[in-house]
Amino acid sequence: MNKWIVVRLLLSNWRRILGKPRFYIVFVAALIYTWDLSKGIVEYAMIADYPTSLWVFPLYMSNSNAVLIFFLLVILLFCDAPFLEQTESFVLIRSGRLRWLISQAIYVISLSAAYVLWLVFCSIITVFPQGALMNNWGSLLYSLANTNAPDLVELGFRISPSMLTQFDPISAMIYELLICFLSTVFLGSLMFCVNLVSHRVVGVAFGSLIVLEQFLASNSSGYAFFYLSPISWINLERISFQAGGMTPSLAYVCCFLAGVSLIGWLVSYIVFRKRMIEVLARL
Q: How far is CA 108 from CA 33, 103, 157, 192, in A?
């Protein structure tokens, strides 16, 4: 058996997605929305004649509306899971079901990484004209968080003062990259599993409910909902980084996201190996 079959299947998936307008719609929409978020910061930097820190990505992701938009785009990105084309039955016969499924898992992981890195790139490039490399948040962001400075500009989100005091920008970027990546893989893996078991419409609806559930956790009176609200963890303030916190710990968050993603792929394999290949081609 060809040991490179998984790589070939992975590259085939990438060629397929790069040939679809949906891929470019998602990435361009993310850029446009990030530009809209950054307008207020850039405008205030021009007014104050002082640069902003480039590390604004964690601040964007502490806003529920931004998380909603970015992760509805994730649903659009993965809505065609399990990525079966009309000719896929012949590929399955030649490659084997396990190799095909492994290639799909690697594809979801790689596409998730590409999307999250694109969001980070967008967050940097949109403030770059008025930005500067700093090892701290910078006085401009502190001003927007702690004074009435947002009244002077059209700031599209709230900058949390506790974010600026609890984290340094480099640590916040690392944590945010990790959680966003795991959350994107989590959502893509569950949508793949649900679509494979039932229908793509069900998977899209299920993914949308997971994304919208963050608002239920945010508006709940206690902390219990935060333990079962994966998308809300994208806001680093919803995670306890020290022992004794009321919200989930970083270890809990990472284990939950990675563990449920793995369970999703195991369920997909169990269901997948029992399906007739002729049926699979028409999913």
A: 23, 9, 30, 9
Q: What is the DSSP string of the chain?
A: --TTHHHHHHHHHHHHHHTSHHHHHHHHHHHHHHHHHHHHHHHHHHHHT-PEES--HHHHTTSHHHHHHHHHHHHHHHTTTT---TTHHHHHHHH-HHHHHHHHHHHHHHHHHHHHHHHHHHHHHTTGGGEE--SS--HHHHHHHHSSGGGGTT-SSPPPHHHHHH--HHHHHHHHHHHHHHHHHHHHHHHHHHHHHS-HHHHHHHHHHHHHHHHHHHT-SSSGGGGG-GGGGGSGGGSB-STT-SSPBHHHHHHHHHHHHHHHHHHHHHHHTTS-HHHHTT-
* The pair of three-digit structure tokens given for residue 246, joined into one six-digit string: 């009321």
pLDDT by residue for the chain (283 residues), tens digit each? 456 788 888 888 898 899 999 999 999 999 999 999 999 999 999 998 899 999 999 999 999 899 999 999 999 999 887 766 555 555 666 667 788 888 899 999 999 999 999 999 999 999 998 988 888 998 999 999 998 888 888 887 889 899 999 999 999 999 999 999 999 999 999 999 998 888 788 989 999 999 988 877 766 656 777 788 899 999 999 899 887 778 899 999 999 999 999 999 999 989 887 765 554 444 4
Q: Are 233 and 253 in contact (CB under 8 A)?
A: yes
Instruction: For residues 124 and 114, give the distance between their C-alpha atoms in angstroms, rounded to a whole number.
Output: 15
Torsion angle of C-alpha atoms 276, 278, 282, 283, degrees rounded to 10: 20
CB contact at 8 A, 41 and 145? no
CA nearest to 84, candidates 171, 196, 183: 196
**What's this model's pTM, rounded to 2 decimal places?**
0.90
